[in-house]
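Recap for those who missed Tuesday's class. We walked through two folding examples back to back. For each one, the amino acid string is listed first and its predicted structure tokens come directly after. Nothing is annotated here on purpose, so try labeling regions yourself before you check the end of the notes.
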Amino acid sequence: MDPNSLAVMANRIRMKDLETVYRAGAGHIGGEMSAIDILTTLYFHVLRLDTKRPDDPDRDRFVLSKGHSAAALYVTLAERGFIEQAQLTTFLQPHSALNGHPNRVKVAGVETNTGPLGHGLPVAVGMAKAAQLGGADWRVYVLVGDGELQEGSNWEAAMAAAQFRLDNLTLIVDHNRLQQGARVEDTNQVAPIAQKFAAFGWATTEIDGHDIGAIISALEPTALIEGRPMCVVAHTHKGRGISFMEDRVEWHHKVPNEAQYEQARRELAEASK
């Protein structure tokens, strides 16, 4: 899909994510909105996948380390054809496969269970190392939140990835500068992120995480450097696309009331014109 088509799809996914969280009465809508442009570009332009063969050994792997943004992943998987659209209505319902954090045993297209922050990058490093050892040409992509980088396990994984020269690994940081209950800088500042990963031996780049063209360019094979894992710092806005949510810390896991829901729907509908 071209950038314009991807932007339309991203807005569609935002709308369905809003509906999914509102219907369930729970979720993490702010960080989902900040990540949707990235998820859309990955699933509809970058990742080598086969929806009819979700366990194809030659597929690319994607790990959503910020697993609390599961609703955005589920909506994206439904749009891509991994799960049925009707299944989205069961999000967070009793006995539903669509839990608050993704489960690879229950949901087609999910590569690994995530939720406890700081686990996704170490798992992705293991996947990339397995591909390297097996001489496979598939790639591993992992999306983390910036607040999540306060977990020390990420930096152990970063050292290992550089040591093993895992140039088949791409880390994308959803740098929206907000975490649960506070700004990242007021909790435990992780910036400057790109410089820190560069010091650990990674290739790095910084982009506008809502610019589809910039996301595509950062993830193109020509952007990679042989022998070095890639870190893409995507500058984003929590609650992107919905005026009263943008850059507001309380929308980490707040759920819109009816009036807010209708306003958000109107704003997203207007953006799609």
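Example two. Treat it independently of the first, because the proteins are unrelated.
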Amino acid sequence: MKIVIADYNPLWPFKFLKERHIIESALKKMNPAVEHIGSTSVYGLAAKPVIDILVGVGDEMQLEQTITPMINAGYVYFEKYNSIMPYRRFFVRLSPIKGSIIPEVINERQNFTNGIDFTSITHIHIVVKDTYHYNRHLAFRDYLKAHPDVRDEYDLLKRSLSQRGFKDSLHYNDAKDGFIKQTEKDALQWIERRNEHKGF
């Protein structure tokens, strides 16, 4: 499959705000922290036109408590990824292709393919607040915003990869993994130095 990479769209932040309202309403009893992350959150950065959202909850018990209200809010629960990322609950807003019927839950036995059976519109990553996996997403976003040279390097990488064919979106993500892991490491160190300078 080909990965579609679009130029930065100034409407992306407004699409995030719409989704944030839905998520905050669905999970209001948990007082979630809802953040726009990923490439669509960085001004000037090309991206797959999918809004990535990070939701922070108070503890691990609340992870399971998000499932029913998020499904009721119209998101599909990708249970299939829990085995490789047990610290996260992953939800997606999907648009079906060619009349495909999208289930409420997609588990490991179901084979749905992005770009064939559906198109992803929004990805929601729910994790516990202030953990490593929460902080790394925010650090990566803020680091790219503060370092245009790194942002542009990432932009070039994604545009280059979009010229290739991939088995699926996970295969595409693997191709970016080296850059992302190194940038996350740099970003977390940058945040730590910045906080030390501020006296946190």
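Answers for example two:
The beta strands are 33-37, 51-57, 76-77, 89-96, 118-128.
The chain has a mean pLDDT of 91.
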